Fold this sequence. Notes:
The structure is a single chain. By secondary structure, this protein is mostly helical. The protein has one domain. 85% of the residues lie in helices and 0% in strands. The radius of gyration is 18 Å and the shape is globular.
Amino acid sequence: MSDEKSIVSELYLFMSKAGASILAVFIGIMAKISHDIMLKKKHSWAEWMGILGMSVFGGYLMGQYCSSHDMQEQGKWLIPLATLFSEKIFMYIAANWNKIMNVILNRKQ
């Protein structure tokens, strides 16, 4: 019985800390799906899973950033935006990773 209370209390603690971020990621996913539907984009199930996976990961990263930099108020709008745009951001990084790494490592081309 004590283990069940412990699990429930741990789950409650997690949801109270991460609930707003989870909701913000969900809002961003809904915006992404709505945007693609409005533009009449056709995606296969595999493409949808990839897009949603990148979107959730981008929203999660922004949530972690906001959490670690005490930006809870900004996270209310940054997390959904990061979720919405993360597919495009990751596609840009994948296409230009060499240039980006050269700038980060301060190398000349």
